[in-house]
Amino acid sequence: MSFLAPLWILAAAVVAGAFAAALVLVERRRREVLAASGLVVRRGGGRTVAITLAIAGIALLLVAAARPQAVVTIPRAAGTVVVAVDTSASMTAEDVDPTRLAAAQAAAVSFIEAQPTTVDIGVVSFAEGALATQTPSEDHLAAEEAVESLSATGATSLGQAILAALSAITGETVTLDGATESGESGTETTATAAATGTAASTSETDDPGYWGDATIVLISDGEDTAGPDALAAAELASSLGVHIETIGVGTAAGTTLEVDGYTVTTALNQELLTQVAETTGGTYHELADAAEVDDVAAGLDLRVTAQTEETEVTALVAGAALVLLLVGGSLMIIRTGRPL
């Protein structure tokens, strides 16, 4: 415990000591007078207790004047969230009204608006590559604007999305077995890592730390057409304590669309998105229609953390002092018929 005005503690000690000394002297004098008068000296235990409580109450009032502070643990929905939005060409499909991308943007904005200010929010857009368009911060309006400015083009890499989100969370360049965020490969390929079931990580410090209060909200149709391996990236996220909530945008029946003069078929890959989420302890949510955006956003599970902070407890100490004074005064009235 600390105090904003510690000199009052000295005053409390002096006053309490003076009152205690006075109580001892008065009680001794009372006994001497009664003994000299030939009267029976009865124990004044009740009176002494009452006065002691009153002295303690006065001392606590002076302690309250010192404005005490205590470290308390407060549960709150806090931490870091990175919203990763799929901006590949398949997100222009219209099997969700009005388009997959528009529905994804609406879901992301709705989610951001629902979060408390204690949650830092960042935004990652991803297609074949991934880019943090807004680093995690308490500026939720900037995150919403970053989402609303997204446009669709290119192929899809869920793995790149996860790595970019992890980099935004940790503040370090997180890679998977030597694969950089631009998709270049090192001495060990992601295919090898996936085959062996390992998910090695590297960063600028080679120790990204543990981020148990961080969440990635991955909004995509689940079509994964470029490396690195999405499940290996999810395993890496899990090892860092980060869990992933996935939102599937599109329909299982799918649709066709024109991309660079070619007609391609695209459909929701619910299975992969479910595997990515469950690998990290997260949950898959399906967004079949833009009207369901609010329900899905509200249903996402953010981890509640316990945060310690120093809080002034003057009111609590003052309250305890008043209780002691009240009890002491009541005992005195019961014992002697008068408050003091």
TrEMBL record:
<feature type="transmembrane region" description="Helical">
    <location>
        <begin position="313"/>
        <end position="334"/>
    </location>
</feature>
<keyword id="KW-0472">Membrane</keyword>
<dbReference type="Pfam" id="PF13519">
    <property type="entry name" value="VWA_2"/>
</dbReference>
<feature type="compositionally biased region" description="Low complexity">
    <location>
        <begin position="178"/>
        <end position="203"/>
    </location>
</feature>
<feature type="transmembrane region" description="Helical">
    <location>
        <begin position="6"/>
        <end position="26"/>
    </location>
</feature>
<keyword id="KW-0812">Transmembrane</keyword>
<protein>
    <submittedName>
        <fullName>VWA domain-containing protein</fullName>
    </submittedName>
</protein>
<feature type="transmembrane region" description="Helical">
    <location>
        <begin position="47"/>
        <end position="66"/>
    </location>
</feature>
<dbReference type="InterPro" id="IPR036465">
    <property type="entry name" value="vWFA_dom_sf"/>
</dbReference>
<feature type="domain" description="VWFA">
    <location>
        <begin position="80"/>
        <end position="300"/>
    </location>
</feature>
<feature type="region of interest" description="Disordered">
    <location>
        <begin position="177"/>
        <end position="208"/>
    </location>
</feature>
<keyword id="KW-1133">Transmembrane helix</keyword>
<dbReference type="InterPro" id="IPR002035">
    <property type="entry name" value="VWF_A"/>
</dbReference>
